[in-house]
Design goal:
Number of helices: 8
Strand order of the largest sheet: 4-3-5-2-1-6-8-9-7
Strand content: 15-25%
Radius of gyration: 17 Å
Order of helices and strands: EHEHHEEHEHEEHHEHE
Number of strands: 9
CATH topology: Carbamate kinase
Helix content: 25-40%
Distance between the termini: 27 Å
CATH superfamily: Acetylglutamate kinase-like
Shape: globular
Structural class: alpha/beta
Largest sheet: 9 strands, mixed
CATH architecture: 3-Layer(aba) Sandwich
């Protein structure tokens, strides 16, 4: 393959690690993602990956059950560590050197996130799996992905979701909704399109970080997005 980006950050939702409509881990889906990341690293692409935890626990949902919001968010951060370890194990089974770095320190199982250490791992060709969000409550993993992408000088943020991209209306309620393949940040704001949380979106816009929203279930979707193909929606300044 011919990589379009030198260094990228891939944001994967926790739901992408489970079978559709279920919770927990789907080993086959994790393995399929690991195979795509192996293809990227073999082509010389430096890959960082921010993992969600929604397949195990969502902080906002826990808060609705009466759990303190901050406590619920910390629980969600620990869920991302579980997913990060699963992805790390699958990557190494595919022969890809990997390191898990967490913003919430869990010394027994992963390294703490230190920017210069993460950069060194990337330069050595290791996939860097970033778990624990930002280590603080009230921030989503989308915000963590945008923050880490800027910190690590990534060329693009690839947001792997369970939808094909950004539509002009909610396709679940509007069957005639149209996929929008190319948008500017200003146009997204003007049309009030829902892409990611406002903090994450503003960080991408202010730091001129291109954002690609695509369906992780598309055949070789991650690889094709990394090649610069027209997969999903590209958002840029």
């Amino acid at each position: 393959m011919e990589p379009h980006y030198r260094r990228l950050l891939l944001k994967v939702s926790g739901e992408g690690f489970a079978k559709q409509g279920e919770t927990g881990l789907d080993v086959a889906r994790v393995g399929a993602l690991a195979e795509q990341l192996k293809t990227l690293t073999a082509a010389g692409v430096q890959v960082a990956c921010v993992i969600g935890g929604g397949n195990i626990l969502r902080g906002a949902q826990s808060a609705e059950l009466g759990i303190d919001r901050a406590t619920a968010d910390y629980m969600g951060m620990l869920a991302t560590v579980i997913n990060g370890l699963a992805l790390c194990d699958s990557l190494e089974a595919h022969g890809v050197p990997t390191r898990v770095l967490s913003a919430v320190e869990v010394h027994k199982v992963c390294e703490p996130f230190i920017r210069r250490r993460a950069l060194r791992h990337l330069e050595k060709g290791r996939v860097v799996v970033l778990a624990g969000g930002l280590g603080s409550p009230y921030f989503t993993t989308d915000t963590a992905a945008a923050q880490r992408a800027v910190e690590l000088d990534c060329d693009v943020l690839l947001k792997a979701t369970l939808v094909d991209g950004v539509y002009d209306a909610d396709p679940k309620h509007h069957p005639d909704a149209q996929l929008l393949p190319d948008l500017s940040f200003a146009e997204v704001l003007r049309r009030q399109l829902r892409v990611m949380d406002q903090t994450a979106f503003a960080m991408c816009q202010e730091n001129d970080l291109p954002l690609v929203v695509f369906n992780m279930n598309a055949p070789d979707g991650v690889v094709r997005a990394a090649q610069g193909e027209n997969v999903g929606t590209l958002i840029h300044n």
